[in-house]
Structures are given as structure tokens and as C-alpha cells.
User: What shape does this take?
Amino acid sequence: MVSPNINQEKSCCLVKGLEKIMILPKVVMKKVLCICRMAKEIAQDDPRKVIHSLKVGLAISLVSLFYYYQPLYENFGLSAMWAVMTVVVVFEYTVGATLGKGLNRTMATLAAGALGVGAHYLASFSGETGEPILIGFFVFLQAAIASFIRFFPKVKTRYDYGMLIFILTFSLISVSGFRDDEVVKMAHKRLSTIFLGGSACVMISIFVCPVWAGEELHYSIAQKLEKLGDFLEAFVGEYFKTTKEEESKEIKSFLEGYKSILNAKSSEESLANFARWEPGHGKFKFRHPWSQYLKIGALSRQCAYRMEALKEQLNSDIKGSAEIRSTIQELCTEMCLESSMALKQLSLSIKTMKKKSSHDTHIANSKAAVKSLNSLLQSSLWKETDLLSVIPAVTVASLLIDVVDCTKELADSVNVLATLLNFDTSDDEKPPKEMSQSPTCECVESNSMIENSHVVIIVEESMCDKCNKV
Assistant: This one.
């Protein structure tokens, strides 16, 4: 006899199962709407991704004609599918990545096909017994050598995919050629279809809404410098509590911007590698100094690590003495704002590819503030202060000094890039024709636009009676 408890458990499980079935359409609909929202966000964030998807579809449709169209199929046969496989594997988001993979695949297939045919020809002289042994030895030898070459740093960076295709193609042609007497014809068909598929990828990638890896790297480096500048500007307002409440949301986004820089090394190196495959286009000529962009990216990451430490100080519960913070507030604010303006000027210089000397002035001002801060920290003002209340503020000041040094190194690297690329001189950097006189005399109005400290001023005796007293 079945107990009532067991019947109740079965009925409860049945009810729960029915409830899950009833709410299943709602769960599925919720997932579909979530995917649709995600797709919309991706498309709105970068419409080029939608265009890239359409380009891939177009390329596959074109090369599929080798299989669908009867006259072309009679020439290529089942080897026409290699063209479709080539498009699927080779077509990448940027022109450089597509060119790199396409050339790697084509050259590796050509070399491996020729060597495979040669290996099959040599093995055929050894008779029926020795032919499989010799072919197996050739396959082993090339696979071992090619796999070892893949460990070379330069080969790993630029030709790793080509080495993989070389191993695959040589093995396929050598092994399949043992059972097929028309090995030369088979190699010719595969090479032809791979070449046609790769050519379709390259042509569509270059001439239909191209996405250049060099431009991506160029503007991403400039954007990183701008994010660093935004962080410093937001940090000084948040640390010293000078930020308005209506600006708090924007400030929080600026304080999180440095995080995307910390893990950008691999993407920068990939973009630089792909950019080396690209032909000259626009302002980016052949043999563009992409390695200099990597140096700027490395320095920006060093600066971002300092900013991460500053963010931790901002989130720390131990703020130190408010009196100490107010003592260093003016100099720290000047260091932050001047470094921020310098970084933004460097970012603008890279974006526009024009020289801007104003960042030198901002860096000089920040270095002067560092010197004054060092003098203040070494003064006797701190001797009677509790050490524990000084440490948090001094830590922030030390990190800001490091940021100023990083900014100086970034400026030097950008100046090297400007020299290598012969950046144009910006129109707003030309000195004014008329220089107004110094406000040393009370009768002469000051001109705040003059920032040059090496101006010689001649004051006439008849200008002011007060000056004649001297």
C-alpha cells in the first residue's frame, strides 16, 4: 500500500513540472528579447560589425558558385569546397588580418603542394614496398621541422598560421597521393580554389567598406591617452571633494576608463602585426613605424597602473588628516590638471597628426608643481604632525609625482612619433604677430594669452609717471 506522503510528493512534483512547462514560453521569450537587445547594442556601438558580417556572406556566396555552377564544377569538382573553407577561415574583421591569413595560406599551400608532389615522385622510385615507408618518413620529417620552426618568435608572431597550413597541406597531398595517381592534378585544383577563395576575401575586404588595422591601432592609442587625462581630471575633483553632484555619474565613468588600458597589450600587438601586412593607405604609408605605437601603449599601461593605485586610495577608508589634504590640495590639483591637459593635447596630436607644443608648457607647469611639492614635504611643517595621518596624503602625492614622470615619458615618445612621421605644424601653434607689453607697469593692461617667458620688454620713460620714479 502506497503511503499518503509518497502520493503527495508525486503530486507536488507533477504540479512543479506543469508550472515549469507553463512558464517555459515566457522564459524563451525573455531569452530571445535579451539576445535581440544585445545584438542591437553591438550594432549601435560599431555598425562596421554588421557590414563585416554582410561582407563575409557576400564572399561565401561568390565562391559557392564554383560548386553550384556546372561548368565551374566540372573543372574543379569537389575541390571547389576548399574555396568556401578558405573564405570561412581567412576572412577577418580587419584588412591586415585578412591579408595576413590569405597570404599565409596561399604561400604555404603553394610550397607544401610543390614539396608534396616532389615527395610523392621520389617515393615512387622505391617500389611498392618502400613507397609508403618513404612517404611516412617525409611526412614525419616536415611535420617535426615545421612544428619546431613555429617556436621562433618572429615566425610565431607573423607566420604561425602559414606553418599550420603547410603541415596540413603537405600531409594531405602526400598521404592521399599514395592512393591517387593524379596527385599533380589534385594539388593544382586545391591550390587554385584556395587562391580564388583568398583573392575574393582580400578584394572584398579592401574595396567594400574596409576596416584598417593600422587606423584602429592609431586611434585606440590616442583614445587611451585621452582616457588617462580624463581620469586625472576626475580624480582631483573626487579626492578633494570639489565635484558637483550633477557631475558625479560622468566622473565615475571617467574613473573607470583606465581599466580598459591595463589589458590592452595583446590587442595592440595583434593590431600592429596585422597593420604590417596592409598596403599604404591615406596617412599611413608603407613601413609605418607601428613599433613606436607599441612603445606609447606600454607607457600608457605604466601610467594606468599608477592610476589604479590612486583609485584604491580613493576607495580606501583611511583618508588621513583633512588638514594635510588641504595643505597639498593646491599643488596636487595643479599637477593633475596640467598633466591631464598635456595628455589630452598628446591625444589630439596623434589623432590629427599635427605637432602641438602646448603640451610642453603643461608638462613644465606640472614639473614646477612637483618641485614645489617636494619642497613642501621636506619642510619642517610635518615634524609635529602625526605620521599615520600623513601617510595616506603623501602616498597620493607620491603617485601623482610618478604620473607626472610617466606623462613626460609619453610626451617624449609622441614627439619621436611626430618626428618619424613628419607631423604638420598646427595652425594654432604659430606665434602671434603682435606681442603686448608686460604688466609690470600698472598703466599697462595685462594680456593673459602670452605664455612665453622669454620676452624682452622695453618700457619708454614717457609711458607712465610711476615708472619714472625709478
Observations:
- Residues 4-45 form the longest helix (42 residues).
- The first strand starts at residue 354 and ends at 355.
